[in-house]
Amino acid sequence: MYDALLRLLQASPITHNPHITDLKVYGPNAFRVKMRAVVTPTLTFQLWLNHNPRYTRYAYQLFSHSNALLRWDNAPHHPHLKTNFPHHFHDDQGRTAPSTLQGDPLQDLPLVLTEIEQFLSTKPTT
Fold first, then answer.
1. What is the DSSP string of 42-111?
2. Rg of the chain's alpha carbons, rounded to an integer?
3. What is the distance between the alpha carbons of residues 54 and 2, in angstroms, rounded to a whole number?
4. Which of 19, 58, 97, 109 has a Cα-to-Cα distance from 90 of 20 to 30 A?
């Protein structure tokens, strides 16, 4: 699956030079991977997955230097967000809201990239 995710990043018009920065395969269809891609000269996209046949933990992040701007993850630390728990989104204002992601990286990554593209269209060019 991680190779298919890398191909999605390579095909995206908003990501450049996508690459795997960390990969640990620990069984059949079980792995942990971190990927990064340049979005603009000052913005980087990062994907982190810990996947096995029973469950997938994920975090997608757009950041500038070390400051997170947009984040999607399914860490179960916001139980008050009952809609689609544990999937949630952190916006550039520090607010947290339920996310429409489902925990299927091949389906979720294109949605994340579309949301990043929409976010960038509302910001000055960086």
1. TEEEEEEEEE-SS-EEEEEEEEETTEEEEEEE--S--TT--TTTT-EEE-TTS-EEE----S-HHHHHHH
2. 14
3. 16
4. 19
Which of helix, strand or coil describes residue 16?
A: strand
Q: Are 28 and 34 in contact (CB under 8 A)?
A: no
CA distance 34 to 49: 7
Structure token digits, residue 63: 């950041």
Distances (CA, A) of 25 to 2, 92, 107, 117: 10, 33, 21, 31
Specify the DSSP class assigned to residue 123: S
Can the peptide bond before residue 86 be classed as cis, meaning omega within 30 degrees of 0?
yes
Give tens-digit pLDDT for 16-70. Answer: 999 999 999 999 899 999 999 999 999 999 999 999 999 999 999 999 987 899 9
